[in-house]
Each structure stands twice: as C-alpha cells, then as structure tokens.
Amino acid sequence: MSNFHGAYDFNIEGDINIYAKNYHHHDGRSRNAVKELREHIAAGAMHDSAERCDAPKCHPETRVAVQDELVGWIENGDQEEDPKKIVWVTGPAGGGKTAIMDSTAQTCQKKGLLACAFFFSSFTGSTNRRFKRCLVPTLAYQLVQHKALRDVGERILSCVEHDPAIFEKKLEAQLDQLLLTPLREARKDSDWPKVMLIDGLDECQAEEDDDTPRSPQKAARANEADQKEILHVLLKAANDPAFPFRIIIASRPEQIIQSFFNNIAPTTRRIFLDDKYNPDADMLLFLEAKFAEIRREYQLSASWPSSDVKQTLIENASGQFIYVATAMRFIEESSACRGLCANSGSRRISSPLLRVLRLEPLA
Q1: Which of 5, 19, 114, 116 is close enough to 139 for a disulfide, judged by CB 3.0 to 4.6 Å?
Q2: Residue 355: left if φ>0, alpha if ψ -120 to 50, beta else—which one?
C-alpha cells in the first residue's frame, strides 16, 4: 500500500529524488538536452536507421561461424582464462565485414546485448557518417534511448545541459564527459547491455578545415590521424573499470589500423575473415537460395543453372562475398530479366548470367 494512502492537505518541499527501473521522465530541461544532443548525431550511422535499410546483411545460414564466435564472446567472454574487451574484425574489401556487423547488431538487439553502434560510410548515406565529430554523440544518444540505461541517460543529458559546448571539444573529452563519467556514476544493473559496435573505421575521413582542398597525400594522413584518435579513445574506454561494454571494431587491414592492433595485441582479439570461416560454403548457400528464387519466378527447370556455373562464380569471387552478391543483383535486375513469360525465361535469363561468367576473377 502507498505511504500516501488516505493522506490530504500536505505539501512536498525540497529536493526529492525518486529512482525506479521502470520509470523514465524527461522534464523541460532534459527535453532541451535531448534536442541539443540530437542535433549533433549521425542518425544514419545507427544500425537500425532507415538510411541503412539496404545495407548488406548476412544471408540466412551464412557467416554462421563468425557470428556465433562474436555473440559467444559477447555473452561469455568474462569466463575466458584471459578476457579481452576488444575484438577487431578485419579482412579485404568485399569480405562481408559490414554484413556480419549488421547481422550481429540485429542478433544482439534481440537478445538485449546491444548498447550502441556506429556504422561509418564514406561512399553512401549522410556525409556526417564519415566524420569523427558525430561518433561519441551518436553513441551517447543511443544510451539515452536505451530502456535499461535510464540512469546513465539522465546523467548524459545533465552533462549536455551543463556544458552545451561539449560537442566542440576533443574526442577524448567527449568520451570522458558523455560516456565514462555517466557510466561511472550510474547504478550498475544486471540487465545492462554488453556490447558496442563500430563498423567501417577505415572509412572515417577527416573534415576539411578550410576551402583549400588537400592533396591526396595530406588527405590520407589526416584520415589516418582521425582513425588513430578514435582507436585510442576506444582503447581508453575499454581499459576503464567503469566501462561495462565489450567493443567490436570492423575495418579493412589498413596499415595505420593494423599497426595499432599489433601494438596492443595481448589485450585484444583478432578475427580475420579468411578460409577458416569457409566463405566458399557461405557463397554456395547464397547462390543456391538466389537461383531458387529466380527459378520459381520464371518457372525454370530445377537443374538450372548447372553446378559448374555456381562453382565458376565462387572461384571468380576469390573469397570475396561482394562479388557473388553483385553478380546476383545484376542478374536479378537486368533488363533482360524483366517481363519474361514462363516459356522463354530460361533463354532470356541466361543472357545476363553468361555476361557475368565471362568476367575475370578478382585479383
């Protein structure tokens, strides 16, 4: 029964603090802080953003081994003899890193494991997905919105309210004030999420300081400096006892990033997307599923295409999943495949397929 049951003619004065796991209220000042924070994020970089609706995802039953390894580490990494707080997922362009990270983010969200994520992109989507200045605010915004992190979220908003210029400070200062201090001061709960995901770090670009374009060499050095700065602040977070999340970073093995991880090798895990994870088997599953869809749509023979065709596509891909994904997209979307009648489908659909098969293998 409530302590106020039957009471009347009373006032409550002074500062009253009420804490409840299932209660979340933003007063006017907090709402202003949310709005201020929202103006400094890259909404398109969040894993479930509308901007990323066409982002690559793992086809069902593919990349199972690496996804299982990542999720298993997130859930049970503390039980290892030598626990690590950071995993680096790396491999060549087209190896499926973003698809793996996207599918892992979805799995973790369903399990309540995902705290926040940032998907860099220098080629598609909003330009603010390219720059470091949006990284920490975007991560902080997701913590504010997370139902299990309400106490943390209120403290983040308090920081924004008291220091609106935080977004103009160095990355390390943003990390300290928007993430580490709120996490340090909040009440730790058993239902807190467990992982932060950063994808496409090699696509982070330095912003131009003026209207004078940089030379390619200077631009590359500036990009590397920003990428290295991000790695340093993430390492600082991982080493802070108050930081409760594991961190998964995915990128190509660019020299500056590889050098960083080589220097801290004893404290991190590395997953290189090579033959250990059997990409050929994943590509075969993908091709069989896609060709089955085409057969059903155009009423083609169950023997179409031959196993030799699928094997040729896999060999041409040289372990890079993006090759077979692009090839199948071309076959599906080719103008030669539109408006086919059932009795002419096999001949017409084979034309774009033959064009793909004539391509040279990837180097």
Answers
A1: 116
A2: alpha
Report the C-alpha gap between 105 and 114 in whole angstroms: 7
Q: How is residue 154 written in tokens?
A: 């209120």
Q: Which residues contact 281 (CB under 8 A, 6 or more apart)?
A: none
Round to whole Å and give the CA distance between 115 and 217.
36
CA distances (Å), 281 to each of 31, 114, 234, in order?
Answer: 50, 29, 34
Q: What global pTM score does this model have?
A: 0.72
Whether 344 has a pLDDT exceeding 50, the answer reads no
Query: Which token pair is 193?
Result: 């999420």
- What pLDDT does 19 receive? 41
E strand spans, the chain: 86-90, 114-119, 195-199, 246-251, 268-272
Inter-residue contact 244 to 187 (CB < 8 Å): no
Is residue 198 helix, strand or coil?
A: strand
Instruction: State yes or no: pLDDT of 11 exceeds 70.
Output: no
DSSP notation for 95-142: SSHHHHHHHHHHHHHHHT-EEEEEE--SSSS-GGGG-GGGHHHHHHHH
* Contact by Cβ (8 Å): 171, 229: yes
Residue 54 has pLDDT above 70, yes or no: no
Minimal CA–CA distance to 143: which of 106, 103, 116? Answer: 116
Q: DSSP label at 252?
A: -
> pLDDT confidence of 225, banded at 50, 70, 90?
very high
CA distance 275 to 91: 11
Q: What would the two tokens of residue 18 be?
A: 């009420």
